[in-house]
Specification:
single chain, alpha+beta, Alpha-D-Glucose-1,6-Bisphosphate, Chain A, domain 4, five-stranded antiparallel sheet, 5 strands, 27% helix
Length: 111
């Protein structure tokens, strides 16, 4: 059966150096879900991808894949692009959008 996806992206700036930002984002995402992947995007580039599977929707029954791309920003800190994606059934729960907003709030609050 073909199901629609609910995808939401949020861009953040974290006032931390790149390595500290990667540790911070990784620890926050591990609190939200189960770690799937943590890898460097390309050798010699200051970008790191962190991916977890979180629970979303009614009763936490809908898996949501949350991906954070942490990249070195300017003098002010590091840039984080959050992307949360979930499948939608007949009842739209917007699990991807709600999870992305929740993770962004957690990252912003913990600074």
């Amino acid at each position: 059966m073909l199901m629609r996806k609910n995808v939401h992206e949020i861009d953040l700036v974290i006032p931390l150096p790149f390595n500290d930002a990667v540790e911070h984002v990784s620890s926050m995402l591990n609190q939200v879900g189960r770690a799937v992947a943590n890898m460097q995007v390309a050798p010699g580039r200051d970008e790191q991808t962190i991916r977890v599977v979180a629970c979303g929707g009614a009763g936490g029954m809908n898996p949501v894949v949350v991906t954070a791309l942490v990249s070195k920003g300017g003098q002010n800190g590091s840039e984080v692009r959050l992307r949360a994606a979930a499948k939608e059934g007949l009842i739209k729960q917007r699990a991807g959008e709600k999870t992305a907003t929740l993770v962004a709030a957690l990252l912003d609050k913990a600074r």
